[in-house]
Amino acid sequence: MNRLPVVNFFRLFSFGLFGLCFVFNSSVFAQTPISLSNALDIAELGSPSIRRSLLNIEQYQHSLRAERASLKSRFSLTLDPFSYSRNRQFDEQFSQWFTNTRVNSSGTFQVEQPILKTDGSIGLFNTFGWRNNKTDIASFGENSNKAFSNNLYLVINQPLFTYNRRQMALDELELNYENANLDYAIQRLALEKTITSQFFDVYLAQLNLDISREELENTSKNFEIIKIKVEANLLAKEELYQAELNFANAQLSVQDNELGLANAEELFKREIGMNLDENIQLVTELDAAEVIVDLEKAIEYSLKSRLELRQRQINIDKSLFEMERTKSMNEFRADLQLTLGIFGDNEDFGQVYNSPTSNPSVGLSLNIPIWDWGERNARIQAQEVSLKSQKLELKEDEKQIRMDIRRAYRSVQTQMPRIEIARKNVENAERTYDINNERYINGDLSGIDLNQFQTQLSSKKIELARSLINYKTQLLDLKILTLYDWEKQEPVSIALPRD
Length: 499
Fold this sequence. Notes:
With 499 residues, the protein is α+β, with helices and mostly antiparallel strands. It has helices spanning 4-26, 36-46, 48-69, 165-231, 237-272, 295-305, 307-327, 375-441, 447-482, and strands at 32-34, 74-91, 96-115, 120-137, 141-160, 280-282, 333-346, 357-358, 361-367, 484-485, 490-491. Strands 2, 3, 4, 5, 7, 8 and 9 form a seven-stranded antiparallel beta sheet that branches. A two-stranded parallel ribbon has the order 1-6. Helix 6 crosses helix 8.
């Protein structure tokens, strides 16, 4: 059977794939080098999850500022510059009709100061006005009064026998703001894990591409050697056909790995917030040195510093606030109001306070619940159950943290032996390939067998890279779980965006 058309097909196919490789490689010159630390820096600015966390912080920040501003003195001015009315009315006491015409103008200046410690308030009010009043009574004639007036008074309001609502609102907003900052810190740690994982995914894709290109180079050399020997009648044509298939498969592997790398890079660039059209080249030294981890210290430090535990405690504190609100339903409550002031009026503006009148007042209002059919007690019991549930979840979280740290610790301890075995496997695979490659060139080994040794070498290189990456990611997991960097032997410092 004539196989020359097949040979020509593979040669044309090879030239086409080489052309694609050339076009792909020509874009490498415009690539931006990115290390893992660079990727994390870029992600902190461009990651959608981080930006959402920052917006959440900003929202609570504005709310907290507004609440603090509401505790300061408020100044306001209310003006009624002109008012006119004319009414015909009947006076039942004197059984007379009368017509009242009134023109007045007034304004009130007030200063109110909330009292945070007692949930009360104190206010100073001054109302100044001018009034022109005329009354025409049948059979009695017309009476009129035109005068200036000023009312200056101090008002004190104080709730009694209830909780401090103003203080609780401020405390709750501060907890919400702290919780938003903790969410941001947790997002940063989660982002570091995600970015690291995707960074190494791209690294593995690049490694697969480099290995496949190395395979293609080796296969190309072997193809030329076999071609010469077949033409010299030193080998059977079947070896040339197998060499051509190996060469074509190597080219397809390069193409597949180029596509895989492009897909992995786009996922990575989207996650860190980069332009998808920007070309990148990862820069890293994938190596591993044994790291000493103290298990007891890891657990102790984690229970003191884990952000999730503080968030759980914040939820408990907020539940205590809700308990206070629940207890205030149908509560016995009193509200005290005290007013002290002086009033003066006169036709002459300068003599308004010639004969002032004091106008003190005291008021006490009581809210006395009588019967609510057990609603208040039932709601309190429901809130108590919710509070117990949250405290139980806090204890379970502490147990889970202990378990997670121990699991991560055990995993870290097993990684270094795996790495050493993987390194030895690569060394043995390289020696085995070199030996069998000589046998193949000498005609003592078939192309199919050599391809198996080439595949074995490539897989061992990938296994070594995966072992090193697993060790790095396991150390990162332990770092996130304990908030302690065991490679640097120092606590993790997370900068929170505060006021």
